[in-house]
Amino acid sequence: MRRRLAVVAFELWPFVVVVFGGLIAIGKLAQSEWEGTFLYNGDSLVLPLVEDSILRGEALHWVFSSQNFLFPEGLFFFLSTLFTDSPRVALYVNAVLNLVALYAVLRVIAHQLAHHSRHRFVEITIALGATVLYLVFVLLEPTASVNRSGTATTYLMTTYYYGVIITGLVVISLTLWVTRSFVVPVWERRRVRVYLVVVTVLTTLVVFSDPLYVAQVIAPFLVGLLALIWARRLSWRNASILMIPAIAGTAIAFVLREVFRDFFASDLASYVQPDQVRVALRVLYDSLLEMSGSAQGSLKLIIISGVMLLTFSIMAFAIYSRFDAKAARSISTVEFFIVTFVSVSSVSLIAGHLITGAITTRYLTPLYIFPLLTVVFVGVYVLRRLLVEVENAELRRNLSRFSLGVAAAASVLIVVVGVINVPAVVRSASGADYTTADCFDDFVGDSDVNGVGSFWTVRQLDLYSTAKGDILQADGELTVYDWMNNLGAYDDKEFSYVVTDESGQLPREAVGVLGEPAQVIDCAGYEIYDFRGTPGEEILTDRIAESADELLDR
Questions:
Q1: Where are the transmembrane segments (predicted)?
Q2: Full DSSP string of 270-307
Q3: Closest of 318, 343, 304, 310 to residue 220, by C-alpha
Q4: What Rg, from alpha-carbon coordinates, does the chain have?
């Protein structure tokens, strides 16, 4: 019994370390410009606003972007809200949950690579080390820019496509589980049945939610399997078993996306802009310049470049092993598969960025996560040989004690630094320094008036203000802006004010068609044009109502 408790404690301790590591990352974010991006940016507030809409009992006619964040983002955010009513706390809990999920999947993959329970320390150490390496990337981000050099941090945010990454890692883990890490040619029928069902369901849900999964996970996954066939390490029959659920799930998902196309504001074709390749190249170049412009950014660039160099070097050796029997014995089939997946995913991410003419780097987040698979399998390979296969018993014991001591000291240090960051996290999560909504609350007072404004301002006001009425999205034409927005919220409402800001989406000039306002209130970062009691109130209400009806009827 005591031994079993010790094993449980040994397994749980890394999760504690990861949680406090998450507090270190959040503490850094909370004391920088990242706080605004994390808690108040319009894109970051999708799921809190969906929850708020449901709690208000509004008719649900949500229109998202090309992603709807249903799975797994919606599930993770729901779990994050179970013990809090605060959107800020939920967003931070979600970030920690993402980190815990990353460690958990890497821990399972490390176990599947080590093949033996006596390697528990190796598995935990390597999985935890890989997770900490990701945290290092976050802490080394030079600027709070999700569209340039701040790419790694976006994995911690609710609506920046982390679901694709975590689901991809789960599918990799399931693949190693059903194949027993490719060490046996015949697989258990029970495992195969479970794999077929689970991977099909996962693929369907995640592709329906975010089609990026096809390019970022399924494509390199299929190429990895084809590479094993080419290397004569996997039969076509077994490869087909692994391919079928991924392909079938994708097909089902695209059918569902067509059936529910009203939930999406844009189709996939709108993202493909090959004529913007030069712009996309410039974005990458500017991001590298921004990253290398500081010591911490340069260190981050050196580390990830080193991991990628290691990955492509092993990939080159794997290809060479196809033609050399001796070399083939030096790299296992599972290592061949993982390094192919990581290499192809890295290349496809950059290629996809260029082909689509992307003006943002946030779609490249997997570049900081998938290479951790290389870290895991190389780490398991090296540490297992150091701690288990060293012939000298005394040297082996000394190495084990030293490794355990270093791991214990590092984990305690992470917990201590995490505790130090708790006050900053608590202050940020409480909104103690948030003042953006104060001016708006003073204007609205106890009334239940409704208004419209720019996407970038009204979403945080809608979520964090104490106003009784609604403040909803509109564009420069003073019509409904149907982007990650609930069209049902506009139903049967009168609108009497307009909020403008410097974003350019709803400029000051746009309110001219409403005539002279009753008053204009200048707030920090935005202005409120009040049309209560003026002809502009009726004009505004009619414009919003007509555009909402048109969108609902299309």
A1: 12-30, 89-109, 121-140, 160-180, 192-208, 214-231, 238-256, 301-321, 333-355, 367-387, 399-420
A2: GG--GGGHHHHHHHHHHHHHHHHTSHHHHHHHHHHHHH
A3: 343
A4: 26
Judge whether 79 and 142 are in contact, CB under 8 Å: no
Residue 13: which residues within 8 A CB-CB, separation 6 or more?
A: 411
Work out the burial of residue 449: count CB atoms within 10 Å of its CB; fewer than 13 is exposed, 13-18 middle, 19 or more buried: buried
Separation between Cα atoms, residue 352 and residue 371, nearest integer Å: 18
Residues 6+ apart with CB under 8 A from 38: 29, 44, 91, 92, 95, 157
What averages of pLDDT result for each successive group of 10 residues across the chain (554 residues)?
Answer: 76 91 93 88 88 84 84 93 92 96 96 75 89 94 77 89 94 95 84 94 95 93 96 92 96 92 72 76 83 86 93 93 84 92 93 80 89 92 71 68 80 91 93 89 89 90 88 90 86 89 84 89 90 90 89 76
Measured CA to CA, the distance from residue 96 to residue 23 in angstroms comes to 8
Domain count, the chain: 2
Q: pTM for the whole thing?
A: 0.92
- Examine residue 431 and state whether it is found in any structural domain, yes or no: no
Q: In which region does residue 58 sit, left (phi positive, over 0), alpha (psi from -120 to 50) or beta (all else)?
A: beta
In terms of Cα–Cα distance, which of 483, 509, 484 is closest to 498? 509
pLDDT the model gives residue 116:
61
**Whether residue 535 sits in one domain with residue 392:** no
**Residue whose C-alpha is closest to residue 121's, from 336, 366, 408, 316:** 408
In sequence order, the β-bridge partners of residue 200 are none
Q: To 5 degrees, how large is the angle CA 524–CA 32–CA 295?
A: 135
Domain range for 346: 22-426
Cα gap 61→472, rounded to integer Å: 14
Q: Got the DSSP string for 402-463?
A: HHHHHHHHHHHHHHHHHHHHHHHHHHHHHTTT--HHHHHHHHHTT---EEEE-HHHHHHHHH
Domain endpoint, select from 426, 461, 493: 426
